[in-house]
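Researcher: Please predict.
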Amino acid sequence: MSGKIALVLILVVVMSGAAATAAGTVTLYSQGIACIDETRTVTLTAGENTIDLPVPAGLIPTSLAVHFAGRVSEQSFHYTPPNSVLAAAIGKQVEVVGSAGSVFQGTLVSTTNGITLRDSTGKIIVIRDPRRISFAGADLPLSPYLELRLAADAAGKVPIELTYLTTGFNWNMSYVGTLTADGKTLALTGWAQLENNSDYTLSGVTVRLVAGNVNTAKENAAPRAMAAPLAAAAPMQAQSAFEYYLYTLPAVIDLPANSSTLVPYGEFPVVPVQRGYTYDGARAPGVEVSLRFSNTAADGIGVPLPAGTVRLFQPQAGGTMFIGADTIDHTAVGADVVVQAGTAFDITGTRTRTASAKISNSTYRDTYAIVIHNYKHAAVAVNVVEHPAGRTWKVTAASQAYTKVSANTIKFVVNVPADSQAEITYTVEYSY
C-alpha cells in the first residue's frame, strides 16, 4: 500500500439502521425536518468528561440545546460524508472490512451505493455496509456524532436531555374513500405516512405531526422503502398549537432508518356525500364530477383533517373500481371537503361566443351560449362557471340567475332533464 498518505476510515458506534436514541418525542413537519427531544443516560466520572453520542447526519448544530445536572463546557457536531473523504482515494489500493467481518482488498472504483473494488484478478466487488476502509493510517468517523464536554459534580449515571432540529424526516397524509354502491355515503380512512430518510433509527418514541407551514429552509429528501402499516390503539389526539395543528400518535413506535411507516389517522365508516357536476368551459372541455361532504360529527367525522391525497373507490360487479383522486387542503371541523373525482362520461358541455363587439377604446361586449347535454336517465344539476375578463366587468343580460363567486368568477346552476339538454346565455361588458 502507498506510504505517502496515511489515512484509515473507521465507522464509529452507529451502523446504518442501528438503534440510536432512548425513548423521546419526535415532532415531524411536512417540510422535511423534525424536532427531536430525547434523553440519553451516560456514565460520567467526577470532573471533566468527553463523551460521543450518535446523532442524525442532518442535525442542525445551531439548533441544539443540551441540559443536564452539571455544566456543558463544549459541544460540537462531527460528520464526514463518506463520498467526500473517499473521492480522493479513487484508483488507489484499499482494504475494506465488511459488516460480517470479511476483509476485501483491491482498487477503489466507486463510493456510490456502497464501496466498489476491483481485486487483483479483475473481479468487481461491492460492499454495501462497510465497517472499516483503510488506505493509510489516521482515523476519520463516517457516522455522525455529537461530542460533549461535561463537568460532573459526582461520578455515576446521569441523564442528558437533547433537543435539536434535523433534516431527513417528513410526513404526509393520504385518505382512502370507498363509495357505497348507491353513491350516498362514503367510508373514509386516513393514513399518515412517516418518512425517515436518514441512516438513524428512532426507537420507542412518541411521534407528533404538525399540520401547517413553518418558515424554514427547504430541504429535499429521497423516498425510501415502505414498511408495513402499524395499527394504532386509539385515534390520534389533535390540538391547536401556536398557529398550527398538532397530532399526537396514541402509542410509542419505532421509525426505522431509510424507511416509511404508515399509521392510521382515523376511520369514519359512514359519511354522507353529495355528488356534484361542474362545467368550466373556458378552462377545461369536460364536465367535472365531484363528491362533497361536511367535516362535522353529525356527518361522521368531526376532527381536523390534515392536507393530503384522497383516493376514491367503489365496489362494482366483479370487483372494486378506482374512480379518481384529488388533494385536499387542511380542513377544520365544520368546513366542507370537495374531492374532484374526474370527468363525467354522459354529461357534456359546449361553450360558444355568439357575439363580440368593441364599444369604446377599452371596453368590450361579449355574448356566450353554454349548452349542457345530459345523456343520463335522471335529471342533473350542473354548476356552470364563467370567468369574465377585464379589470372591471358587468353582466348586462343573462337567461337565468347567477351568483358571484369571486372577483372574476360567476356561477350558474343549470337543471338539465333526463336525456335532454339545457342552454344558458349571458352578455358581459368588460374594460381594461
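Model: The helical segments are 82-86.
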